[in-house]
UniProtKB/TrEMBL annotation:
Modified residues (O-(phosphoribosyl dephospho-coenzyme A)serine): S28
Top-level taxon in the UniProt lineage: Bacteria
Pfam families for the chain: ACP
GO CC aspect terms: cytoplasm
Protein name: Malonate decarboxylase acyl carrier protein
Swiss-Prot/TrEMBL keywords: Cytoplasm, Phosphoprotein
NCBIfam families the UniProt entry points to: malonate_delta
HAMAP family tied to this protein: Malonate_deCO2ase_dsu
Natural source organism: Methylobacterium haplocladii
Annotated compartments: Cytoplasm
Post-translational modification note: Covalently binds the prosthetic group of malonate decarboxylase.
Primary site of residence: cytoplasm
């Protein structure tokens, strides 16, 4: 297992007031994403647990792209990876942000 943590500063907090959301199912060979509104409004933290090591730079790029697109200020995001591809990770992160806005 590899554990990665990425911290970002955002320009704005994520819209909405929903306290948490979950997307994906790790047992499907995909990934599970838990989003919690627990950080200051300009902070975002993404923690990744993955069985596949050596892809930290890919995770970093995917998370940075998500933060730039969604501005998920105030969120702590926990990802339990089951071997998902980068495009699936992006999709689940954006789905989670949309759920939090609803």
């Amino acid at each position: 297992m590899e554990s990665l943590t990425f911290r970002h500063t955002t320009k704005t907090p994520l819209a909405g007031a929903k306290p948490l959301a979950i997307t994906g199912v790790v047992a499907s060979g995909n990934l599970e994403v838990l989003l919690e509104r627990v950080l200051p409004p300009n902070a975002c933290e993404v923690a990744v647990e993955t069985p596949i090591g050596g892809y930290g730079d890919v995770w970093e790029a995917v998370v940075a792209d998500f933060v730039a697109r969604a501005q998920p200020g105030g969120l702590r995001i926990s990802i339990n990876d089951g071997g998902a591809r980068p495009d699936t990770v992006s999709l689940r992160l954006l789905q989670g942000a949309r759920l939090m806005e609803g």
